[in-house]
Specification:
The protein is mainly alpha-helical and about 240 residues long. Helix content is about 50%, strand content about 10%. It contains ten helices and three strands.
Length: about 240
């Protein structure tokens, strides 16, 4: 995500809370938005985040060429399109990306769809790069593991539901693990929609657009979904879970 000011978590939550109140966001959306922004707040103009690992670091699970195209071309395109749309609406640059997608109805109709798709695409990909990594795999521990067991019966129960969400998403979209209040839930969204649009905090996301896997897996989405578990950075997911609490 783009650089953020070095605020403490408490100060940032207070700042976000004041902002969402000023913008008139619904009461159901405010807690999710504040929690999502607890660790970072993505403000315009947006910029491409630097990956914390090399393009080939996720091989053999995701190949280097796919990572390069996905990050440098696709993610950059969402950022460019979002910034271009915002250039004609300087008043919107007071809002963070999280605020925009959490309250789409407050955006001008002329740019609502382009911002939904491209700001959503920026947020989704920024999260995706953070929750995967070369030291991924294994199993979560601590409070996240307890919450997954409570919500899904076991880690395998969660993986089954998440995998089904990824496989049943027709066309392009995402599979998600999100936190809504004190509960965890699995869902999928079309295109570049995000759980923030529904008042939930995304913790883990899997991109099932074909550009995320087609060079290596072609039409074998199931193989891509299976490989995903070898690169999930559970420490990063746990940090998001804690921030959303």
């Amino acid at each position: 995500m783009s650089p953020t000011s070095p605020l403490s978590r408490r100060a940032l939550l207070k700042s976000i809370g004041a902002g969402v109140t000023t913008l008139g966001l619904g009461a159901a959306v405010r807690p999710a938005l504040a929690a999502s922004a607890a660790s970072s707040r993505t403000v315009p103009p947006f910029s491409l985040p630097k990956l914390p690992y090399a393009y080939d670091a996720l091989e053999p699970h995701i190949d280097a060429r796919t990572m390069e195209i996905h990050h440098a071309k696709h993610h950059q395109a969402y950022i460019t399109n979002a910034n271009n749309a915002l250039a004609g609406h300087p008043d919107l640059t007071r809002r963070s990306a999280e605020e925009m997608v959490a309250n789409l109805g407050a955006l001008p109709e002329s740019v609502r769809t382009v911002l939904r798709n491209n700001v959503g695409g920026h947020l989704n990909h920024a999260l995706f790069w953070q929750v995967i990594g070369p030291k991924g795999g294994g199993a979560p521990t601590g409070e996240l593991a307890t919450a997954l067991n409570r919500s899904f019966g076991s880690l395998e129960g969660f993986k089954t539901q998440f995998g089904e969400a990824a496989m049943k998403r027709f066309g392009s979209g995402w599979a998600w693990l999100s936190r809504r209040g004190g509960k965890l839930e699995v869902s999928s969204t079309a295109n570049q929609d995000t759980p923030l649009m529904e008042g939930a905090v995304p913790l883990l996301g899997l991109d099932v657009w074909e550009h995320a896997y087609y060079l290596k897996y072609q039409n074998r989405r199931a193989d891509y979904v299976a490989a995903f578990w070898s690169i999930v950075d559970w420490n990063a997911v746990a940090a998001r879970f804690a921030a959303a609490g």
